Amino acid sequence: MTNIAVTTWSLEQTAPTDLLPASAPEGDVRIVRAEVPSPEFNRFLYASVGGDIRWTDRLGWTYARWREYLERPAVETWVAYDRGTPAGYIELEAQDDGVVEIVYFGLIPAFRGRRIGGHLLSYGTARAWDLADRWPGLAPTKRVWVHTCSEDGEHAMDNYQRRGFVLFDTKVEEEPALTAPGPWPGAFPA
Q: Which regions span the lipid bilayer (predicted)?
């Protein structure tokens, strides 16, 4: 199997005032928290958003593994809907000492390039900053961080930086060159 060099960038905000919100897109775009843990729905979002950009680490998760992850305290999924249709999502996970990671963020390919991503990232980052308000006993957020890589969407890094995230680490590692799995064969143009 062929390997490729993949660059991973880690970015952070260290105060809620670091967030530089994008304007809301035109039309009927809403962002709603998926409050009921649903392995089927989260796997759909994961495969649909990441299928063309080689998100593969969770494809082998069992139903029980998805449920276990989603039922953990302070794990939240926020979903953007365009006229009632899921367009993308942002997944938050509380970590130790007031740190919140944006574990996954992205849009289904048909919804990219329509200004939904900046709005969703802005909204989701604001929810990371106020996560403790929804989870009694959770330490107030002191830091929000995210990582993106050279395999992610071409506008990912720019979107993070335009929202006020600052680069704090860069790593380059060799990884197997994988074919984008897509949610099903033929879903994405070649």
A: none
